[in-house]
Amino acid sequence: MTKQEIVNIIKTELPFAECKKNEGIYESSSIGDISIGISFEDSDEGKEVYIYNLFVDEDEYINISGVGTKETPLPDSIVDELTTAWNELIAGIK
């Protein structure tokens, strides 16, 4: 999976404008056994943030450590981490 493919999945299947705050995780369609999840939440610090994770099969998920904001919903660091984690899963590393 390339970084651009990750960005395309998020922008087409998980549009930020459709995420309702504090109403759960929105999930992309699966590619193989993996999908991307995003939620829009109030952080413990009182900021509005986008939280990302990867879902594997139906019972495992991997949290992505960074968060996005309204101003920068999908920072490069998150794209990098999503891409690395996805490719490690595919390669059987995780």
SSE order and pairing:
Elements (H helix, E strand, L loop, with lengths): L2 H11 L12 E2 L6 E9 L5 E9 L3 E10 L6 H16 L3
Antiparallel strand pairs: 1-2, 2-3, 3-4
Please give a structural write-up.
This protein is α+β, with helices and mostly antiparallel strands and 94 residues long. The chain has one domain. The chain contains 2 helices and 4 strands. The radius of gyration is 13 Å and the shape is globular.
- Mean pLDDT across the residues is 92
The biggest beta sheet reads: 4 strands, antiparallel
Structural class: alpha+beta
The CA-CA distance between the termini, in Å, is 15 Å
Number of helices: 2
Radius of gyration: 13 Å
Q: Which strand order do you get reading across the main beta sheet?
A: 1-2-3-4
Q: Share of helix among residues?
A: 25-40%
What is the ordering of alpha helices and beta strands?
HEEEEH
**Residue runs with pLDDT of under 50 for 5 or more positions:** none
> Any idea what the shape is?
globular
Q: How many strand units?
A: 4
Hey, roughly how much beta strand do the residues contain? 25-35%
Whole-number count of domains: 1
Q: What is the chains' assembly state?
A: single chain
